[in-house]
Design a protein that fits this description.
alpha/beta; 10 helices; 46% helix; Glycerol-3-phosphate (1)-acyltransferase
Length: 314
């Protein structure tokens, strides 16, 4: 619809439409929030929580439509067949920029329960969205430096408790928790500092996953391993709005979580901790190899920018 506009104009239009879409859906959202909080009764709150999640799904639909109107992105999304809304999922994705969130949501929206994800505590003050994340019971995590933890060792278990309680709140009905296992966005400096054994990924952090597995245990059977590759090598919101992201590849792999890894004592059982870390490391090695395949030049590609095929889904 507006793809013919010059990049800067499309960027201003896309950003304006994103803000307008957010404002539009915040009106009913913030009407429902006080209704949810008005009566401290479980069924009442569950009913209104469901309404808030449906509003969030509609917000994602609006963002997807705006991208379709303003961008020439070729989407190659595979592996979403067979996903269900009546199951519990733990979603793990590689992390390159904030654009990863709308990309992952595009792939899984309305196919599984609307995802909740771990958010830095500071983002609760983000206008409109911070309050929405709080109302949707997103788990807020405090990022602490190694120096701080050395001075305050008692703080080490606080984020674990936050993750564990987040899992407990998801027990009542099918739900999805999204976790960027790297804990931060990938860049070359962090990769070198960590001495990561992977080519395209930082080392995975397993504590949050372990806390969720401990609290959800028998309900959580599937890890959705999501791999995102930007074929042009650009992934910022500036690149997105200015039309510099031309092809995006998303691969979704539903992986069964072994029964012996659900509900173990990660903090006090060294054998269980080693088993979970080894299992996630193997999944991470497979993801790293997949990213390499998707980034490799495809035969006949005039620019050699990757093996992104066609328009894909949605």
């Amino acid at each position: 619809m507006f793809r013919w506009l010059p990049g800067p104009l499309r960027g201003v239009l896309a950003l304006s439409l994103f803000l307008l879409n957010t404002l539009l859906w915040c009106v009913p959202f913030y009407i429902v929030v006080p209704l949810k909080l008005a009566i401290p009764q479980a069924r009442w709150r569950a009913l209104h929580s469901g309404g808030l999640l449906r509003i969030a799904e509609a917000w994602v639909d609006g963002n997807n439509a705006i991208l379709n109107w303003t961008q020439r992105i070729e989407w190659d999304i595979r592996g979403v067949e067979g996903l269900r809304r009546d199951q519990w999922y733990l979603v793990s994705a590689n992390h390159q920029s904030w654009v990863d969130i709308p990309v992952v949501l595009r792939a899984i929206n309305r196919r599984i329960p609307f995802p909740k994800f771990f958010i830095k505590q500071e983002l609760i003050w983000l206008p409109l969205l911070g309050g929405a994340w709080w109302a949707l019971d997103y788990p807020f995590m405090k990022r602490r430096s190694a120096a701080y933890l050395a001075r305050h060792p008692e703080a080490r278990g606080q984020d674990w408790e936050t993750a564990r309680k987040a899992g407990e709140r998801l027990r009542a009905a099918p739900a999805t928790l999204l976790n960027f296992l790297e804990g931060t966005r990938f860049d070359a400096e962090k990769h070198a500092r960590q001495q990561s054994p992977y080519r395209y990924l930082l080392r995975p952090k397993t504590g949050g996953v372990a806390a969720v597995l401990e609290s959800l245990g028998e309900r959580l059977h599937t890890l959705l391993d999501v791999t995102v590759v930007y074929a042009d090598g650009r992934s910022s919101f500036r690149d997105l709005f200015l039309g510099r992201i031309r092809r995006v590849s998303v691969r979704v792999r539903p992986l069964p979580i072994p029964a012996e890894l659900r509900g173990g004592d990660y903090r006090n059982d060294p054998a269980f901790r080693a088993a979970l870390q080894a299992w996630l490391a193997q999944r991470w090695a497979e993801k790293d190899a997949l990213i390499g395949q998707l980034r490799a030049p495809s035969p006949g590609s005039p620019r050699g920018q990757g093996s992104i095929l066609g328009d894909g889904l949605q």
